[in-house]
Design brief:
Length: 230
Amino acid sequence: MWTTENRLRYKRDKLRYPSDLTDEEWSHIEPLIPPAKSGGSPRTVSVQEILDGIMYILSTGCQWRYVPKDLPPKSTLHDDLQRWQRDGTVKNIHHTLYVKCREQIGREASPTASVIDSQSVKSTEKGGREIDPPGYDAGKKIKGKKRHLLVDTTGLLLHAIVHPADIQDRDGGVLLLSTEFGLFPFLKKLFADGGYQGPVFRQAVAKLMPKLFVEIVKRSECPSGNFASH
């Protein structure tokens, strides 16, 4: 956890790129990486280097073909990321680090309260409808995609999906919760804004997660963005 006292520990000035993993960060992730496929060729690229390359892409948002030459080839980065997404490695890394972060700040490993919200953003001009179908958010007047997030009351990410911006919050929220797959079984309360108000969302949540109570919070009631500690 970053504090004024330990800021030197988190300085990234001496790394090749600010997105590179430190040895300490790598030590948390290394045990979670599955071994190379049996019967295949042995690895010729350091897995830590592959993670550094993936983190560079995610941090900078650059296109695959613009990956710097001192990082592994774009094909290696892309193929390993795709494989780790398919076999659940990415989700396992996130969940493991999430639990460690919760415990580090003195919270129970699994939260009991969460916050749901969305953000509409413009889509890239490339891709076409089949690859990257957009939608029009009439309320925000944005043609693009909508990021739908579920976080705990400290702001740590629990789950996220991306869908066309024309899907209303209540429908996107149901999709978000339906793909959460029971990773956080002790959730009891869901804070949401007025976009999720009404019986349609409540009834859908009751079917998906019967023990989860939806509490609609008006923005004027919580100007600082803080929620009760859970």
